[in-house]
Amino acid sequence: MRYAYGLTSALLIGGATISLVTGQPAGAQVAQNADPQIQTAVPRAGAPASFADLTEQLAPAVVNISTRQRVEVQSSNPFAGTPFEGMFGDRGGGQPTTREGQSLGSGFIVSADGYVVTNNHVVTPQGNGTVEEITVTMPDGTEYEAKLVGKDAESDLAVLKIDRREPFPFVKFGDSEKARAGDWVVAIGNPFGLGGTVTSGIISSVLRTAGAGAYDRYIQTDAAINRGNSGGPLFDMQGNVIGINNAILSPSGGSVGVGFAIPADTAAPIVERLRKGETIERGYLGVSIGPVTEDFAAALGLPRNRGEVVQSVVDGEAAARSGIEAGDVVISVNGRDVTPDQTLSFLVANIKPGTTVPVELIRDGKRRKLNVKVGTRPSAEELAQSQMFGNDNEEDEMTAPLDQGEFLAEKLGLGVVPINPTIARQLGVSADTQGLAVAAVNQNSDAARKGIQRRDIILSANYQPVTTAEQLEAIVRAAEADGRPSVVLRIQRVRGPSGYIGVRIQ
Fold this sequence. Notes:
Layout: H1 2-22, H2 52-58, E1 62-74, E2 96-109, E3 115-118, E4 130-137, E5 143-145, E6 147-152, E7 157-161, E8 184-189, E9 197-209, E10 217-221, E11 233-235, E12 241-248, E13 259-263, H3 264-275, E14 283-284, E15 287-291, H4 294-300, E16 308-313, H5 318-322, E17 329-333, E18 336-337, H6 344-349, E19 356-363, E20 366-373, E21 375-376, H7 380-388, H8 395-399, H9 407-411, E22 414-418, H10 421-427, E23 436-441, H11 446-449, E24 457-461, E25 464-465, H12 469-481, E26 486-492, E27 498-504
Subcellular location: Periplasm
Keywords: Hydrolase, Periplasm, Protease, Repeat, Serine protease, Signal, Stress response
Domain PDZ: 281-347
């Protein structure tokens, strides 16, 4: 069996080699008793003998994108607490310092006047950084300072602008809806800072859902994509951009043949709006949703892979106003079925806010149809805030702000966020409440031992009102400068009256 398998593999490889070199047909196997004259295997039209001509035409429009960033980091004395603490000077004394950071990615020019498309994460700083300069480098090494025209975090797209007197080479978006699994594709980018690099492969899957967001639908490819390919183009054999390389699935951090690209049909309209300086608005219902599992479907007599369950409804949003309730199973929106590959989030996000659409759902085993006026989707930051205090038992949410090495986390063991109307609603307090909400508490801190909990509100510190983390930080720093070991916080409890607590500075 090992020999037979090896021989079959050799024949298949040999057949493929012949057809690429000679152009002779190659393809599906035929029966042994078939007419010898038709025992020729033909590859699908378009299988190339080489990608060189295509690459030569397209590569001039693919660019390298680099950023120079200023990143704030927390400095500390590595000898603190030892006899050598003062031997080498102050070494920062815990004060924030800045360092220069860089990012590297790819992009492509989409117009002769120099508009460049890339990923948002390529030109967006991480943490407390700011981007000071964006540089676009052409394949011939010519550098241009780029202006950020617009970016959209939801779709992870950004548009830059570079200028020169002569027209730039550019490429065009194609029709990704025509892409099929098995089609040849070529990726051009700048992995590992090596300069223009070309890889080829096929489309492994179209419209692969790789997350739960409104735009987490991708073209999957086995063309090698690595760090630095982000924002680069994925071309079809006609030289059209059918995808924007965005992410990989890899246990090692390198390419293992599972890469994802944002489909052109999703990207092109957003890019056009960003070029015009328009705000990207998306539809929104105001619900949290869950999948229809096999057991859930069986209990309701639903077909598998159809619909999503409404877990909760946000007060005052589109779903609540139209009568959608928790427990409803939404099976279609505006005549389009809700499926794993066409999620409720995706369907609604692509509807213009203010539009009224029919929504079909199942409630108590019966089908119902409601007319819903779609709302406007909040920003990613607003959505994150809306979920920050949704559940007292969300341990991940409690500890996340403490993992960033911030001053307040180190000195007080607290992670805090300013109160806005969204957070005030979650905390059950008046919308005009001023203060800082406690988002996380280090359980080994004095604040925790004094009973301060997540969802508590800090109204003042040392009898001074605080509405920003910077104000609280300044008060703690002043206390340290005066040699005081603690600060007095006025705390509004989640349940109960406010009170004053002395918290030791760590």
